Every structure is written in structure tokens, then in C-alpha cells.
Amino acid sequence: GPAGTLNPPPAAASKWVRLNVGGTYFVSTRQTLCREPKSFLCRLCCQDGPELGSDKDETGAYLIDRDPTYFGPILNYLRHGKLIINKELAEEGVLEEAEFYNIASLVRLVKERIRDNENRTSQGPVKHVYRVLQCQEEELTQMVSTMSDGWKFEQLISIGSSYNYGNEDQAEFLCVVSRELNNSTNGIVKEPSEKAKILQERGSRM
Description:
By secondary structure, the protein is an alpha+beta fold. The protein folds into 2 domains: 16-122, 2-Layer Sandwich (Potassium Channel Kv1.1, Chain A), CATH 3.30.710; 125-160 and 170-184, 2-Layer Sandwich (Alpha-Beta Plaits). Helices cover 47% and strands 25% of the residues. It contains 10 helices and 6 strands. The strands form 2 sheets. A 3-stranded mixed sheet has the order 2-1-3. A hairpin with a 2-residue loop joins strand 1 and strand 2 (24-29). It starts with a helix and ends with a helix. One of its GO terms (cellular component) is Cul3-RING ubiquitin ligase complex. One of its GO terms (molecular function) is cullin family protein binding. Residues 15-118 form the BTB domain. It comes from Sclerurus mexicanus. This is KCTD2 protein.
């Protein structure tokens, strides 16, 4: 009868795992939590021995004394294998948790992300060059396909047809393209310029 629907069979219940991370509840499946066999989460759910099993709160959730803010990216990584970190979260915080939960592949990913960011910020903001090209409809595909390396297509603005040949309307477009000024050269130019100045001054004094 209806009473049966209230109590799911144990098989279904055991598939889902509740985690209480620093006071915030997360719900996931054993399959997700055991993606990384050596991880703390896998040991927690899959070896339900008396010593680990005792760490549950009154709702039956596993208690983990860690910061819940950084647990989201960890759990999502186990769900879909991608590292997604909200802008306001510090990568270092996620790294800390990845190390705590012992998820080696995620630790590697976060370290790479931090390294990339350091490289990017040390080179200052990325500068873009924009160009506006005017062309006709039939030239568009050719132009876009022959755009040289590094140029990125930004926007297409139709400026209507400027003239008709007989009955044929030729639509005119403005095509906006952009390109990053090469970071690495930026980084290289900055430093020597100071030294170069000093050398020039020395040279002029001599």
C-alpha cells in the first residue's frame, strides 16, 4: 500500500549519500564519490567500517569538518570531471580541499590553473587590437575563412545595400575582428626596457 512508498528499498537508499560538510548538506551518489578510488570520500562511503561509520550526524549524514564553500567544485569535479571555480572562490582554497580529500588528478588541475593565472597576471592585462573591414555579402565567407592567425571574428554589422546593379542588391557589411597583442612579447619587452634605459644612459655618459 502507500506506506511502502515512504520507505524506499535499502538498495536505493544506499546509492545516495548525505554529507554534512562544515554544517552544509550535500547529497551525492556512492558512484560519484568513489570516482577516485584513493580519495578520502571513497574510503568514507565504501568502507563503512565501525571506525568511519561513527562519524555521522543525527540525520545520518557523514560529518566532515571542512569548509563547505570549497566543497562544491570538488564534488562537481567528481560528477563530471571538469574543474569549474566561481570567480569569487580562491583557487588556493580549492587546492587545499583537493589535497585534503586526496584527489590527485584534481590537485594537478588546480595547480595548473594557479600557474596559468600567475603567468597571465604577471604579463599585465591582455590588450586587444580591433579592425573594422568593409565588405560585400559574397566576400564575407572568403574573408572570414582567410583571416590570418590570431585574428578573431567579433561582430558583423549590416549597413544595408549601398547600390544595386540592375535588380541585384549587394548587401554591405562591416566586419569587426580583434586580435590579442601577444602576451609573451609584452612580458619580454617590459623587463629589458628598464635595463636598456640604464645602459643607454651609461652609454651617453661615457
